[in-house]
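Exercise: predict the structure of this protein bound to zinc ion.
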Amino acid sequence: MSELNLILLGPPGAGKGTQADLLAGDFGVPHIATGDILRAAREAQTELGRLASQFMESGQLVPDEVVIGVILERLGQDDARDGFLLDGFPRTLEQADALGHALDGQDRGLTAVLLLEAPDDLVVKRISGRRVCRKEGHVYHVDFDPPKNPGRCDRDGSELDQRDDDREQTVRRRLEVYHEQTEPLVAYYEERGLLRRFDATRPLAEVNAHIRAALATLRLEESL
Ligand SMILES: [Zn+2]
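Solution:
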C-alpha cells in the first residue's frame, strides 16, 4: 500500500480538526497539527524545539526554517511512515515549497490537499454562536444547539459565556488572515493537480464520507 500523505486546508470553523481526527482514525495516519508539534518539540527539548521556544518566549513568530525543521522531524517518526495528515502547515508558499522539496528528497510525495470550503458568514455564525459554561466547559450554540434556558447550562445550571476567540470581530480578523495567506496555496496546489474541494457547509459525517470516497478513488487510480 502506498503512503497517504495529506494536507488539510480550510478556514477556522470549517471542521478541519474534526475531519482530521476522523480520517486519522479511518486510515491509521497521525493528525499533525502545527501548534501541537511545536509544543511537543519544546517539551522533548530537541535542538529545534529549544530554538522554537526561544522565539516563542520572546513573543516572536517562529521563523519558517525552524517550523519546517520541526515538521520534517515529525514526519520522519515511525508512526508517519505510512502517511500523515498535516493541519495548519504549510501556511505560506515558502513553507509549501520547502515541504515539497523535503518530501522529494525523501522520495515521498503528497497524495492530495483537501480544501474544506465554507463561506465567511457561515463560519462567523458557527463560531460566534458558541457558548461555553463557566463550571465545566460544556459547549452550546445559540442557533444549532441551544440550552433549554437561555444563558444557562442544562447540565449544571452555571452561566454560559462567549470566549474572546469566538467573538465576531476576532473571527472576521482570523478569516482575513486566512484568505490572505491561504488563497495563494489553493492556487499553488491546484496547479499541481493535488487540490480536492469539499463543501464544508454539509454535516460533518457527510463531509467525511465525501473525503473518504475521494481518497478511495485516488488510491484506485494509483493502483491501476
Ligand atoms: Zn455545564
